[in-house]
TrEMBL record:
Fe cation binds at residues 135, 177, 181. Residues 1-11 have a biased composition (Polar residues). The active site is at 178. GO terms for molecular function: metal ion binding; peptide deformylase activity. PANTHER family: PEPTIDE DEFORMYLASE, PEPTIDE DEFORMYLASE, MITOCHONDRIAL. It catalyses: N-terminal N-formyl-L-methionyl-[peptide] + H2O = N-terminal L-methionyl-[peptide] + formate. It holds the Pfam family Pep_deformylase. GO terms for biological process: translation. The keyword Iron applies. This is Peptide deformylase. The keyword Metal-binding applies. The gene is def.
Amino acid sequence: MSQQGTDQEQTGVYAVDDEGFIVDTEDTEERETAHRERGTSRPITVVGNPVLHRECKDVTEFDDELAQLIDDMFASQRTAEGVGLAANQIGVDLKVFVYDCMDDEGKRHVGHVINPVLVDLPAELRVLDESNEGCLSVPTAYAELARPDYAEVTGQDMKGNPIKVRGTGYFARCLQHETDHLYGFLYIDKLSKRDRKDALRQMEEGTPRYPVVPNE
Ligand SMILES: [Zn+2]
């Protein structure tokens, strides 16, 4: 990501690099702080809440309400000490996620994606990484889950401009995890029956360190 690429084309919310991917590694502290200070933290929905288990609606209105939702999501993400958050995790049925996540080079990425679609990458780019994964909607549980260590997502920014995001390592995992949320899937849905059961047991035994929405 060259500096020159960064200065070019500031048509949307993000600058883009030479390959057309958004630059989400600059002014991360300032941007994240601004979002969450405008936002209101909301409690997190947990596994079993129907909003987490169905596909969210596409965003069609790129208005002030959407901007406020993104701010609220950053505030909620910070309260829960998450690295990524999908809109249905605060009970909103819309395809939006935000992130504040490090990649495997120690670079911090801060951004949002509207109507994300995971790009199907060729097999040679899909090196599986078996790291631990957790989810704010499955509080206090962790499990190993193999995922590709590189991911690309297409979508839109909050103004409706088309964007492309890419990530490596833990950030690649985050992009996949958050996109999955918006299609109604939790990471525990990708585990073996036994590992899923174990994750749910960990959740039963633990106490979340942030406000959650009780299931009925
Ligand atoms: Zn999650």
